[in-house]
Specification:
It is a single chain. The protein is of the alpha/beta class. It has one domain: Vaccinia Virus protein VP39 (Rossmann fold, 3-Layer(aba) Sandwich). The protein contains six helices and twelve strands. The longest helix is centred in the first third of the chain and has 16 residues, at 20-35.
Length: 247
């Protein structure tokens, strides 16, 4: 009998996005978004970097229509099956590492969660997405601690269904993200709350979190709300908070 060799199993998109870690992470991010009390009902939504559509349903449940994009065909394939026959959802293959020159209009909200830090330099992607947003652009991404504008390019696992298609991402500081958003939006806000998840720091004056068994990559995340008009909301601040609280 020959020796048995154990081959590495490449996880499917569903195995990746529906792991216990991702399901928990998605739940905490969306409950936080819902807690902000933003006007997200009956909107036309553009959702870039939609993965397999786990955030898409959030907007469908609020009477929205969603145009979702993904650079990976394997992820789009899951979404085609998942939302087959639902006329409220349209899909498109877009690699925002190299965004189209012109931004399509007709969207109220751009929901950009978990995308920009998977790009080597999201400057042009932000330009493209801002051009799509008639009212608001909602952004959530991994960031680095620091008070200066810095992009901080990093390597990512190209073969992984949730990582950078190019193999390179970034971990920009909050000031870098804010500055890029302010190039396109008159109003940029920080929530005073954070999702109840260890990847969302509450104290930005302390040292960055260190790696642990639960959080091996020691990721730190932040949320931004960029708007065409002013938003009167006690949970949002135009100033970068040094501390935040749990939702």
């Amino acid at each position: 009998m020959g020796l048995l060799t154990k081959s590495k199993h490449r996880k499917t998109p569903t195995e990746v996005f529906h792991s216990n870690h991702y399901l928990r992470h998605t739940a905490r991010r969306l409950e936080h978004l819902a807690s902000l009390g933003l006007d997200l009902v009956n909107k036309r939504v553009f959702e870039p970097g939609a993965g397999i559509g786990d955030h898409t349903q959030f907007y469908l449940d609020r009477g929205c229509s969603v145009h979702a994009s993904e650079p990976r065909e394997e992820n789009l394939s899951v979404m085609r099956e998942r939302f087959a026959g639902d006329g409220r959802v349209t899909l498109e293959a877009i690699d925002l590492e190299h965004p189209p020159a012109g931004s399509p209009s007709g969207y109220d909200i751009v929901h950009c969660y978990g995308l920009l830090y998977h790009l080597s330099d999201p400057t042009e992607a932000i330009r493209y997405l801002a051009g799509c947003a008639g009212e608001m652009m909602l952004v959530e991404l991994c960031v680095s601690f620091g008070e200066n504008e810095a992009l901080n390019t990093v390597e990512e696992t190209q073969a992984h269904a949730s990582q950078a298609v190019s193999g390179y991402g970034c971990r920009p500081t909050r000031p870098w993200v804010e500055a890029r958003l302010r190039e396109h939006f008159e109003h940029v806000y920080y929530p005073l709350t954070q999702p109840a998840h260890p990847e969302f720091p509450l104290d930005w004056e302390s040292s960055p979190p260190s790696a642990s068994d639960e959080n091996k990559k020691a990721l730190s995340r932040a949320v931004f709300v960029a708007s065409r008009g002013p938003i009167d909301n006690s949970l949002l601040s135009p100033k970068r908070p040094r501390t935040q609280r749990l939702v």
